[in-house]
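Reopening: structure tokens for the magnesium ion complex, inputs below.
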Amino acid sequence: MTTVSENVESPSRATGSGALHAFEHWLLNYRRTWHGSVFSGFLLPLLFILGLGMAVGGYVNGSDAIGGADYVAFIAPGLLASTAFQIATGELTWPVYAATRWGSQYKAMQASPLTNDDILNGHLLYALFRAAVSAVVFFLVMAAFGLLDSPLAPLAILAAMLTALASIGAVYAISMSVKNESALSIVHRFGILPLTLFSAVFFPLDQLPLAIRPLAWISPVWHGVELSRASTLGVAPPWPWLAHLAVLVVWAVGGWMFARAALAKRLKV
Amino acid sequence: MIRTFRAARRERRAAPPGNGRRIRLDSVTPPLYRRRVQDMISARGLIKRYGDHTAVDGIDINVPKGQAFGFLGPNGAGKSTTMRMIGCVSPPTAGELRILGMDAATDGARIRARLGVVPQDDTLDTELNLLENLVIYARYFGIRYKVARERARELLDFVQLSDRAESKVEDLSGGMRRRLTIARSLINEPELVMLDEPTTGLDPQARHLVWERLFRLKQRGVTLVLTTHYMDEAEQLCDRLVVMDGGRIAAEGTPRQLIEAHVTREVVELRFNTEDHGTIAEKLDGTAQRVEVLPDRVLLYTDDGESTVAEVHGRGLQPASVLERRATLEDVFLRLTGRTLVD
Ligand SMILES: Nc1ncnc2c1ncn2[C@@H]1O[C@H](COP(=O)(O)OP(=O)(O)OP(=O)(O)O)[C@@H](O)[C@H]1O
Ligand SMILES: [Mg+2]
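Re-run output (same inputs, fresh job):
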């Protein structure tokens, strides 16, 4: 019974690998469905670019409002960031709710050496992983359509990941705290969807009435979208890029702290 | 099999535990130091409150290495709550709790790394198959994939589920899930295994299989802590027991000690067809040291069953059935936790 240490990769407490072990759990579930998700990862941008970009583009291409850019090239980086946002947060609504209410994945982890932080970070890491897969696929589709106008374009993937990172903590905290599952539909309908619609993905922010714009200013999605667009179009973002970055970092850190508190409250026995 | 357990227990009692070296070490070790090192679990004044409800109300426990220690008690006694505190999942509200020589309050993760846990409700991932359940759980402990897969195969064998290795847990029967949970608790080769009602829901054959497996673990020096509602299980497996009631420890000892201390040697069970048990109690008063009225029968605690039966008949009572037997742990349990006593 003293063989434990020999077969253990690393004392996970010391190296912080606990979160990776929790991440592996979600990855194992993903193994069964990954084909589908990569396929839809290609299909989604394709549909957007062909349908929305080409069709709507016929009306608005070269318009002053979008700085004379091609409409497809204008919306594609925005969609890249907002899709990463949607995939990451979607992975943290029902699955997070289910993991503590219906399933017992968290309970099993709790009995192991994993700490609450490991459990949290492992799940967040998985959401980021899903976002990364979608961002890379989306980026490749953009490249195939010749929508990358700047050598800095790959930074758009980073911008998309920052968008995801900035939103996951808050969404996790909400899913962990809501009283019943219908609240999650509300999160989707009145949180995730409007954030996508009013974050300058499909039209520039100055098309919105001034009264609504501050909502975008505090939305992590808008900042991510603008950074992504600046990268692929090779233009300056509306705010100094450090300011955009700062908002995203505040969301990421604040969200994580809320998530941590919500998890601790839920797992308390 | 029952005889095997009993025989082995007798042997263990006759000979001091451990091998020769351990015994010599013990004899030169000061008692206080030994208590510290050897106790796998040591709790002092352990309390758990949920709001203003006190689930565990100041209990003291010592479990030395290699012992099989049991918790008995009615529903809601606080057994699972205690198990969760020892499993370092639920922090005690007050009291001192040391496990494997470490402080439960500060070393939770390190303690859990060396524990095996079978919770009262299975926490398997129903979407995954049996093998995956074991392997991924091993990963939580940082066990390498290769080793994890080997151990998973061995453990499935150990609980006789090898032929279902690739089935989804969803498709398993309740008893099979229980066995898988037990297998999973052993994936990190724990020194201390906590089993909360390990055999609830198992058919008699599976239960005997689990008993036999647990017994083998014990022989390897693994410390077992279990809760159970089956008195035969407690009697078979446990070296020492506590009876919990209302969050407190009502009694403690070996199964035999508990029987000797809390009930008489023999019990006469009477069943009546017609009369109300309440009025029967009065008529039986004095026939035995203690009369206990249960909804379906009356228990007479006595050191001499035969003369008690004679006395019952002598008073003109006509029970539908009369059973004379030796006292068991079940009687101890009823005595300590039952609420229908007529002393
Ligand atoms: N998470 C919780 N929140 C509030 N009360 C709880 C919680 N867990 C247990 N309790 C209460 O603590 C008391 C002891 O419960 P516990 O589960 O420890 O009993 P038990 O001895 O394991 O019972 P059983 O034999 O039914 O499993 C009960 O009154 C129960 O309602
Ligand atoms: Mg219980």
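Chain A touches chain B through 31 residues (CB under 8 Å). Residues 205 and 213 of chain A are 7 Å apart (CA to CA). Marking as resolved unless the reporter disagrees.
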